[in-house]
Amino acid sequence: MKFSSVLILALQISTCQGFVLPNTFVSKSSHLFSTVETKDLSLTEQDEQLKEPTSVRAPLKFMGPYPCLGLKFPHLATSAQRAKNMSGISLDFLLDTAANVNTINSQVATELQLSEAGEALPGVSAAGSMGGGTTYMLGDCELEGVAEEASFMQELTASALPVESPASAGLLSLPFFHCFEGGVEFDWVGQQMDGKQLPPSVTFYGPGDSDAILQDITRVKIEELPVTRLPMVQLNINNMTIPALLDTGSPITVINAQAAKEAGIETAEISTSNDDDKKGGNLFSNFANRFQQAQAAAQAAARGDLITIAGADGKPVQLIKSQSEAGVHLASDDDEIVDFGNSNIYVGNLPGLAALNGLGDESPPAAVLGMDILRKKPKMLLLARNQEVYF
What we know:
This protein is of the alpha+beta class. The chain has two domains: about 5-35 and about 50-210, Cathepsin D, subunit A, domain 1; about 225-270 and about 305-380, Cathepsin D, subunit A, domain 1 (Beta Barrel). Helices cover about 15% and strands about 35% of the residues. Strand 18 and strand 19 form a beta hairpin. The radius of gyration is 23 Å and the shape is globular.
């Protein structure tokens, strides 16, 4: 994987500056998400019945295994557009629930000639910790693929950081999800309507708009990690409960070695070291052994038994697939379970496990619940403000 400089969308997790929520008292406004001053926000029963929904649905794109949202910036322009006195660009952002800063490739800032707006604080993501950087102004943006052109975010800012950006221009993180009082619903497969299969979508709900659907789905409580404030759930693998990050930014589910041991997970056998190398041995023999190990690793990768990623220190980290499938579910407060069925699990030191103190030989059991398992359910509704997720 390649590392590149990126931008952080400078949003504080406790506020929604730049993101303004839907409000039915601004029906004449062209903004889907806006706030207005009003003396009396109380609604009569009749008002409640006449209230228009304050939610909006947009296409959910998949860049490989990554769920992405397209945003349009009508006031930004590339160098080619500026030469023709034109403006308007679209960018795809990974929707990442286990990052607390939002990113965009730094080449965008240069190409779009963004103005500086301050400094961003350090943050974290599944790739590990991220240092601070210069903040830039991106301005207002709209949702791509929505018929009505209306402002979705206002005065969006971003900061350049050296962190990996997978498959998209950047990512939208947990502060983004906190901006929607009614939650954000991922429809991984798309709805059936009039006998037709609609494409995947993501719905942003205003206050109270998701209440009706909550009755038919299962609630799972989220625990907010200290300092990072990332979402943690209690993942059950082979009847062993393991703290896990809820991570739509990870294409796979990963557990550390201690969790694998306690859950009885055995991994595929892959040669990664050689005793002759440690003892010295014949130079040509060592070279041949290393070549054989490389071949074995390549074959394992081709089978899907081995994934190699860059660790927090830039060195390669190997994630090894379990030999057999394991039962996976989440428990709810209502004595119900969200059963994901049986799945293979990867074992290794994914950098994001550091948020749970899950790296190293002496670390406690820890996991990252990724897209391979989350997509086994057709939908997921995240109410970040309430620290709840529904399936």
